[in-house]
Write a structure and sequence with these properties.
Elements: E1 2-7, H1 12-24, E2 28-31, H2 43-59, E3 64-70, H3 74-81, E4 88-90, H4 94-102, E5 108-112, H5 118-130, H6 137-152
Parallel strand pairs: 1-2, 1-3, 3-5, 4-5
Length: about 170
Amino acid sequence: MRVHLGCDHAGLDLRDHLVRWLTDHGYEPVDHGPTSYDALDDYPVFCLRAAEAVVRDRDAGLDSLGVVIGGSGNGEQMAANKVAGVRAALVWSEETARLAREHNDANVVSVGGRMHSLEDMTRFVEVFLAEPFSGDERHVRRIGQLASYERTGELPPLPPADAPADAPTDA
């Protein structure tokens, strides 16, 4: 499996560690930068490239996921989620890493390089990469609603009982 990585200065040490860890565990890491430490670098430059590469690979039928890393992981997740076709999840535990794949079929994981130990963050990435999507109908339906909104900008219909009183009806 190919794993695309992007980070900022706060994620550089973890990214360097993950490149080695991924290689040692049979993955193909692809580093989208940065190439050196710069305390003023901008995470979107690198995280958007990693996210776009994941989508390109998957569209070409390749087995590919992404990892974006920053101080908290928040901005990196937001950047990755701007790329059409990306479902990036911020993880902070093994459980959130597992559920991101199992329930949400996330294709990019975001971790905070200043939030956890190197060992914990490596484990979160390991769990994320190993966990398959469940394919359960309810999860497929929900992901479909997100994908449809991403393509069309149209909100999914509300269930009848939850419709606001002033909402138009389909009657």
